[in-house]
Amino acid sequence: MTGKKKEDTTYKFLTDLIDELFTDHYSEEQKVKDNTPFYESIEDYTVTTGKRFRMTKEQKTRNLSREQAFNETFGEKN
């Protein structure tokens, strides 16, 4: 393989790989938006996602507790 041809092949490989990663990431993100995951508690959310649950400004203005805001966002287990 010549230098130019090898560069073109490498570029195509990397471009395809990056495109596939972005497509997978954003399609998975969309699935999560469409199908809200279930978390048993704020602690479960933190452990599962590695993130701290944050209330929206609107929830804060309604003076909801963190637990109420969490249940409003993710629903309560029935």
What is the structural class?
Answer: mainly alpha
Residue share in helix? 55-70%
> How many domain units?
2
* Computed CA radius of gyration, to the nearest angstrom: 21 Å
Helix and strand sequence: HHHH
Outline: rod-shaped
Overall mean pLDDT: 81
The biggest beta sheet reads: none
* Strand fraction: under 5%
Distance N to C terminus: 62 Å
Total of DSSP H or I helical runs spanning 4+ residues: 4
Number of strands: 0
Unreliable stretches (pLDDT < 50, length at least 5) are none
Topology diagram in text:
Elements: H1 3-34, H2 42-49, H3 57-61, H4 66-74
How would you describe what is shown here?
There is one protein chain. By secondary structure, the protein is mainly α. The chain folds into two domains: 1-35; 38-78, no CATH class. 69% of the residues lie in helices and 0% in strands. The protein contains four helices and no strands. The longest helix has 32 residues, at 3-34. The chain starts with a helix and ends with a helix.
